Amino acid sequence: MPHIKLSEDQPGIRGLFAYRPETAKPLCELAEVLLHAPGTLSPAERELIATYVSSLNDCFYCQTAHGAIAACHLGGDDLLVEEVKRDFEHAAISNKLKELIRIAAQVQRGGKCVRPEDIGRAREQGATDLEIHDTILIAAAFCMYNRYVDGLSTWSPADPAAFRERAAKVARDGYSGIPSQVSG
Amino acid sequence: MRIVLTFQTNKALLNIADKVRQSGKAVQADDIERARRTGATDREVHDTVLIAAVFSMYNRYVDGLATWAPEDPAAYREPGAELARHGYLETDVTGATH
Q1: What is the pTM of this model?
Q2: How far apart are CA A86 and CA A7, in angstroms?
Q3: What secondary structure does DSSP assign to A60-112, as a single string?
Q4: Considering only CB atoms, which chain B residues are within 8 Å of A4?
Q5: What's the rounded Cα separation, in Å, for the pair B46 and B36?
């Protein structure tokens, strides 16, 4: 049961967006810039970073929701998403993405855990400053979203299949429209 | 609307913030109940959890990219006063107001 009174028809962070529209707007704008707006990292790569960090934080709602969005960007490849969560070192992803996920995992433990050699290895695989910046901010942002969702004990559908339809919509339209979808 | 929360409410909300810092799942129903007993509202509990979560992001962002920071606390006084006076949207990152 949620720690505060939330609308019962919206799961996870959506219930929180409905509760506090003033904070929903900047939170969705940040997600749009980080995960959906044009960038040199593909939306699938960025969603995989978000999913991986959410799995490290053990946030069921976020890892399932963003895993489903990543799978949509990957043409429905749920298996690759599961592989990344279980053992990204051996998943069928680029070496650059592996290095970025390694940095994201350090950020999840703490900002000070990121070492110059972690950044150096990502650069050797061709990561740009902007890609390193965005990876760190995505990882940091999901340390926020995960804490927000679990810290208020929001509810989540247990069945990953329940996330698919909404994931397809977010993969297509992005995050900016969510505050108006959940209000009212 | 209460401008200043009671000392007991402050302590109960700081306890929740510290739990959020550790992990969202660390926040227990007991922690929330303790805050409520001191008069904390749903909105205050919500904002406390979100502030703690947001600073779990800002802190990782700042340190994850190894940004530099002035060592002398005095250097923070003027920018801090600007932020306190004008808020975060009217103050640019260098501390000068628009």
Answers
A1: 0.95
A2: 33
A3: HHHHHHHHHHHHHHTTS-HHHHHHHHHHGGGSSS-HHHHHHHHHHHHHHH-GG
A4: 32, 42, 45-46
A5: 12
**Could B25 and A58 be called an inter-chain contact, meaning their C-beta atoms sit closer than 8 Å?**
yes
Q: Is the pLDDT of residue A177 over 80?
A: yes
CB A138 within 8 A of CB A49: yes
How many other β-carbons are positioned within 10 Å of the β-carbon of residue A135?
27
pLDDT of residue B98: 44
Structure-block tokens of residue A4? 């505060």
Instruction: Give the three-state DSSP class for A44.
Output: helix
* Alpha-carbon gap: B34 to the closest alpha carbon of chain A (Å): 12
How would residue A6 be classed by pLDDT, with cut points 50, 70 and 90?
Answer: very high
Q: Please give chain B's pLDDT, 98 residues, in tens.
A: 455 678 999 999 999 999 999 999 999 999 999 999 999 999 999 999 999 999 999 999 999 999 999 999 999 999 999 999 999 998 776 544 44
Q: Domains of chain A, with CATH numbers?
A: 12-178 (1.20.1290.10)
Q: Do B60 and A58 touch (CB under 8 A)?
A: no
**Amino acid at the residue A142:** F
- Is there a contact between A111 and B23 if contact means CB atoms under 8 Å apart? no
Total residue length of chain A: 184
DSSP state of B35: H
